[in-house]
Every structure is written in structure tokens, then in C-alpha cells.
Amino acid sequence: MYFDEETQCFVVESPVSVLVGKKKFMLNLNPYRNAHFQVLNRAKDEYKRIMHNEIIGLPHMMKRISVDYEIIFGDKRVHDGMNIIAVLSKFFLDALVAYGKIKDDNKNIVIHEEWNDGGFDKNNAKVLIYIKVL
What we know:
Elements: E1 2-4, E2 9-14, E3 17-20, E4 23-26, H1 29-34, H2 37-55, E5 65-73, H3 81-98, E6 110-120, E7 126-133
Parallel strand pairs: 5-6
Antiparallel strand pairs: 1-2, 2-7, 3-4, 5-7
């Protein structure tokens, strides 16, 4: 996590998958909708654990935020970015609540979310999350 002076945003780096046991769970709506609730709970807990160091440096109890997601894909295929953001946003915002960074993830606190295509990096697929405190 760092603060970008140019955009006046906190920038957090998120993975696009987590390990659930020995299996990689992609943060994507396609596997999410077919997964057992226990797998989903473990994936969410693992995501929160992984994101701890990224989130802990954010300001405590931000009143209103705007969140932009920049997806850096692992290949050049045509992707449905919203499938990734649907799950990643849920996990990320819930982690912000769990770590006391926002009170809730409702529309009065998270007033804007948007995603953009950040290109691809075959060795480092990830999502950069830009958080602007309003």
C-alpha cells in the first residue's frame, strides 16, 4: 500500500486468486457461483489474511470512499472484467470493514466503484485498487 500524490489515492495491490487448501481459487464469478459455501468462506478468510499488510496502513474509519480497480490480466484473452470485480470487490470491501477501515460497505460510504483494463502481465496478474477518501 502506498499513497499516490498525483491521484490523491491510496493504492493497494490485490491478488486475483487465493489458495484454499491446496487448490487455487480464482476470484471470479464463474467459480464463485459453483463453489460450496465452505470453500467460499475459506477463500474469503484467506483473501482477508493475504490483504492484511496492504490494508492495515490505510486510514482508520474512512467516512466516504471512491474505489477504482485496475485489472492487470495474466494473458491477452478477452476477459469479462466484471466477473473478477464482482467477487474481488465483495471480498475487499468486507476486509476493509473487518479491519476497521470503513464502518460498512453500503452506498453511503462506498459511493463509487469502477474498473479499468490495466493490460496484461503473464507473470503477475493482479488488481490495483485505488481508494480515494472523500
